[in-house]
Amino acid sequence: MNYKFPKSEKLRLKRHIERLFKSGKTTKNSPLSLKYLKFEESGTNLCGVSVPKRKFKKAVDRNRIKRQMREAYRLHKHLIVKDKTHFHMMFVYSTSEKLTYQEVEKALITLLKEMTR
């Protein structure tokens, strides 16, 4: 398993993000919520992370949380590898408390497992 998180796996295109939020499914597990869209053909999983400025005014805090979410995804993306499917997904941090990496990782793993059911 490759534990890298290259640019080709990041959700960046505006049309992909718009389609995801328009027709994607949502699952929540505090402190994270996951918006995802499943495709039945093989391809690359695309992932994005978001922390609202409304809840964390300082960019330092937002960047730290985004770094934690990206790292947890990078280490556990093997949970969603399937042969004939791929996902576009966006993790959104939905609480106003700063949590430890372990808490963020635990929530992210739970969301990934729920998504692949």
TrEMBL record:
It catalyses: Endonucleolytic cleavage of RNA, removing 5'-extranucleotides from tRNA precursor. SUPFAM superfamilies: Ribosomal protein S5 domain 2-like. It holds the Pfam family Ribonuclease_P. GO terms for cellular component: ribonuclease P complex. InterPro entries: Ribosomal_Su5_D2-typ_SF, Ribsml_uS5_D2-typ_fold_subgr, RNase_P, RNase_P_CS. Signal peptide: none annotated. It is an enzyme of class 3 (hydrolase). The keyword RNA-binding applies. GO terms for molecular function: 3'-tRNA processing endoribonuclease activity; ribonuclease P activity; tRNA binding. Its EC number is 3.1.26.5. Gene3D superfamilies: 3.30.230.10. The keyword Nucleus does not apply. Keywords: Endonuclease, Hydrolase, Nuclease, RNA-binding, tRNA processing. GO terms for biological process: tRNA 5'-leader removal. PANTHER family: RIBONUCLEASE P PROTEIN COMPONENT (PTHR33992:SF1). RNaseP catalyzes the removal of the 5'-leader sequence from pre-tRNA to produce the mature 5'-terminus. It can also cleave other RNA substrates such as 4.5S RNA. The protein component plays an auxiliary but essential role in vivo by binding to the 5'-leader sequence and broadening the substrate specificity of the ribozyme. Belongs to the RnpA family. Consists of a catalytic RNA component (M1 or rnpB) and a protein subunit. NCBIfam families: rnpA (TIGR00188). This is Ribonuclease P protein component. It comes from Mesohalobacter halotolerans. The lineage of its organism: Bacteria, Pseudomonadati, Bacteroidota, Flavobacteriia, Flavobacteriales.
